[in-house]
Amino acid sequence: MKSFPEQVSTEVLLLAFLYTLAAFAVIVVILGLGLIDMGLVRRRNVLDTWVQKITAAMIGGVGTLLGGYAIWQWSFNQAFGVPDPLRTAVKDWWIAGSLASTPAVHIDPKIAPEADVLQVFLVFFVTFSMAAMALIHTGVVERAKARPLYIMSFVVGAVLSPLVGYLCWGSVSPLTNRGVHDFDGVFPLYVFAGTWVLVMAWRIGPRLGAFTPHASGAKPVPHNVGFVAAGVLLITFAAPFVALGSGYAVPGKGFFGISYTESGFGLVVTNVIAGLIGGGLMGAAIAYKRREPSWTFLGPIAGMVINGTLFDVGTPLKCLLVGLLGPLVGLGTTAVLRRLRIDEPKVLPLAFGPGIVGAILTGFIAWGTPTGGFPGLEGEYALGHAVITPWWQLVGVLAAMATAGIPCLIMCLVFERFGGLRVSEETEVIGLDAAHWGTTNFGDDLDPPAIPVPGEGAAVHVAPQPVGSAG
């Protein structure tokens, strides 16, 4: 088999390592989300929360691995004039495709230059889909049935999240070439997942006791808010690495955003920390003002998300100031949700609201900045032929929301008709750990109520066991 040593040069391998680090930093973000949920769910739901989150993430990931990544590569095949661009992308980049499963040294650079980097970028997309499902699960913890969630996970990973990436995230993506600008995956992650959560949380309803007292006394009481702090710090650690994976590192020429906007390694990292600090400071101010300590922990995330489209084209001062707005937007989103009686205190205030506001705000801050295209191409794909504008940012937001909201509503209505989205009231009162697994994450939970049998009719009493115990 013919070899192409330029495909495994030191420069290419270093780039591949950068994107590998970025891809697995997304796994750290998922861990952070899990810890946040662990701290905020009821004690009796901790084990099932982890099981659902990890399983949903894995199913979303395998969907992207099986073919979702090809949807994003479709845009490059279109730009470079590849015949039958979607079919060719699927043939090349599904899990057993020729480019996905061949060592880079044996791939002709005329077909796929820097093939190692493209293969690692496949992993980056897989972990992004995993994060999207972890985020969606966060929005419906303690009450969602596993089966509908897992079916949704596959559809999201295989088609829908990559489709938003195809439309809005990439230098030759259709909407990018008209002026839509993204950098840190705000459209395919925060706006998409946030819209999905909004629809699903509306259809599935609030947790028992969330807005009105329940006869059983059940209510969504956090187990240990300290876990939230640990989760946020992990996400804060991972954020700069994820951001650096959201662009092009071109040896000898510099670092560019994913839409080929001019930027820099150091600038992006500084912008990320400035946004996190801005959000953290405002979050702490809100926490002391309202005597709600969770805003101290969640403020940095809101500051990061609201800057997600700005990190590559902003400055540290701008990102700091915009970061200060993040928790304020989150606080306003929370007030609206409470008025609408939608029980979702995390994803919508921290990802959906700040993600949308930040995306549109970037249209004003970076108005007129060249974006889109690819080096060496001409015409509609010429480098920098489009410019960032607020109205195209709004188009990107609406496209991401439609791609998530319409399919989610359809799937919710189908599941409501056939089996339901939500666990039974009895199961929710008992706790999902004991009801689903006959055990508990905590060995000192010694007051088990009746646990429904699989048909959720008759009930039996089962003494909770510590995780890993026999019997």
Report a brief summary of the structure.
The protein has 471 residues and is mainly alpha-helical. The chain has helices at residues 10-40, 46-79, 85-93, 115-138, 146-168, 186-204, 226-244, 265-290, 294-306, 316-340, 347-365, 390-417, 425-430, 432-437; strands at residues 247-250, 254-257, 262-263, 370-371, 386-387, 450-452, 459-461.
Write structural notes for this entry:
The chain is mostly helical. The protein folds into 2 domains: 5-231 and 343-417, Ammonium transporter fold (Orthogonal Bundle); 426-461, no CATH class. Helices cover 60% and strands 4% of the residues. It contains 14 helices and 7 strands. β1 and β2 form a beta hairpin. The N and C termini lie far apart (55 Å). Residues 450-471 have low confidence and may be disordered.
Helix-strand layout with pairing:
Layout: H1 10-40, H2 46-79, H3 85-93, H4 115-138, H5 146-168, H6 186-204, H7 226-244, E1 247-250, E2 254-257, E3 262-263, H8 265-290, H9 294-306, H10 316-340, H11 347-365, E4 370-371, E5 386-387, H12 390-417, H13 425-430, H14 432-437, E6 450-452, E7 459-461
Antiparallel strand pairs: 1-2, 2-3, 4-5, 6-7
Helix pairs in contact: 1-2, 1-4, 1-7, 2-3, 2-4, 2-5, 4-5, 4-6, 5-6, 5-12, 6-11, 6-12, 7-8, 7-9, 8-9, 8-10, 9-10, 9-11, 10-11, 11-12
